[in-house]
Design goal:
The protein has 16 helices and three strands. The protein is mainly alpha-helical and 371 residues long. It folds into two domains: 18-215 and 322-346, Citrate Synthase, domain 1, CATH 1.10.580.10; 221-317, Cytochrome P450-Terp, domain 2 (Cytochrome p450-Terp, domain 2, Orthogonal Bundle), CATH 1.10.230. The longest helix is centred in the middle third of the chain and has 25 residues, at 113-137. The radius of gyration is 21 Å and the shape is globular. The structure holds acetyl coenzyme *A.
């Protein structure tokens, strides 16, 4: 038996949801650049779940279904109020709340395709409501009910801030959601597929995936990037800070990628957004610091920024709390997880690899009083 650390380069499944070929990311064959420049997140959800772009009537129907399913059972909010709130990270809260949601869905264990598609809509619709509600509850405020007349992105910002967002913020969130929606067999998507390949339910698959996304080597990196930028504090401090970190062989968050060695195609969109938004807020230092870090890490280590690097200054510029960055990633990626979960169910086989044993051998049991 031979092993590949971290399963690098191993092709573990076939999938028609998204692909990374020659450094180009596509969702169902559509280049991410094309989608980022043109599509609404709702269109992307339809694309990922149906394999084609929606016609207008289909998009209207999906948008309505998402709006109609955005309410969350009051019990979930009551549970949140009972969390040890000042210590709970929003990703942990989201993971627990999504798991709880399954308790209130009578169809949770109905494994028919139709029931699973309906659950996909319910989960996609409710995740933003949960994130916004948790953010408010921990500040001692009541959750804001979702509105049916707003887009997915605008509704999230509205529930978060109890205020309708301006067009620039709505469009920025929409583009960020489009860019994060799916990414082939990344760690959280693989987790979701492994989970549901046992024929466990959709809620279990998404809960497991949220747990995997939470880690700083995966989705948690966007929050970690902002922590780094805050610690650096000023453009003049970038050079000594990064030099010291590199000399100490520390990881610079938001750089490197298991698959992309020539750059993450999503990063340029977020870089441009970061430039525009920091210009609008007048806090250009976040963009300037980011580009300086980028130039230095690229030239000294040959590592390029990934999707998380510039998304930090984008979300910060939108006034979003730093520990909500990864939940926003989850709010988008749940669309991809659900597409992969539906695909896994449609052609399932248990995922059960092997491990090469490297432990001690031929041990003989010794009674406890003789050890
Ligand atoms: N900063 C400094 N050095 C790095 C970084 C980094 N961000 N990333 C990789 N390296 C170094 C490694 O230490 C290693 O060096 P070595 O050969 O001297 O040991 C070399 O580059 C190769 O890196 P690997 O660890 O083999 O890369 P791997 O594919 O295992 O990990 C990962 C990829 C996890 C993304 C890694 O680059 C990393 O930790 N980056 C920082 C965290 C991050 O931004 N994660 C988000 C990824 S995108 C996403 O999940 C949405």
């Amino acid at each position: 038996m031979s092993t590949t650390r971290g399963l690098e380069g191993i092709v573990a499944t076939t999938s028609s949801v998204s692909s990374i070929i020659d450094n180009v990311l596509t969702y169902q064959g559509y280049n991410i650049d094309d989608l980022a420049n043109n599509a609404s997140f709702e269109e992307v959800i339809f694309l990922l779940w149906n394999g084609r772009l929606p016609k207008q009537a289909e998009l209207t129907e999906l948008t309505q279904q998402l709006a109609e399913n955005a309410e969350v059972p009051q019990e979930i909010f009551e549970q949140m109020k009972a969390y040890p709130i000042e210590k709970v990270h929003p990703m942990a809260a989201l993971r627990t709340a999504v798991s709880s949601l399954g308790l209130y869905d009578e169809a949770a264990d109905d494994m028919s395709e139709e029931a699973n598609r309906q659950k996909a809509i319910r989960l996609q619709a409710k995740v933003p409501t949960i994130i916004a509600a948790f953010s408010r509850i921990r500040e001692g405020k009541e959750p804001v009910s979702p509105r049916k007349d707003l887009s997915f992105s605008a509704n999230f910002l509205y529930m978060l801030n109890d205020k309708e967002p301006d067009e620039i913020s709505e469009n920025a969130i929409n583009k960020a959601l489009v860019l994060h929606a799916d990414h082939e067999l990344n760690a959280s998507t693989f987790t979701a597929r492994v989970c549901v390949a046992t024929l466990s339910d959709v809620y279990s698959g998404v809960t497991a995936a949220i747990g995997a996304l939470k880690g700083p080597l995966h989705g948690g990196a966007n929050e970690a990037v902002m922590a780094t930028l805050m610690e650096i504090g000023d453009v003049d401090n970038v050079e000594p800070y990064i030099r010291k970190a590199l000399d100490n062989k520390e990881k610079i968050m938001g750089f490197g990628h298991r698959v992309y060695k020539n750059g993450d195609p999503r990063a340029k969109h977020l870089k441009e957004m970061s430039k525009q938004l920091t210009t609008i807020t007048g806090e250009t230092k976040w963009y300037e610091m980011s580009t300086k870090v980028d130039n230095m890490v690229t030239s000294e280590k040959g590592l390029l920024p990934n999707v998380d690097f510039y998304s930090a200054s984008v979300y910060h510029s939108l006034g979003i709390k730093h520990d909500l960055f990864t939940p926003i990633f989850a709010m988008s990626r749940v669309s991809g997880w659900l597409a992969h979960i539906l695909e896994q169910y449609s052609n399932n086989r248990l995922i059960r690899p092997r491990a090469e044993y490297v432990g001690p051998e031929k041990q003989v049991y010794v009674p406890i009083d003789q050890r």
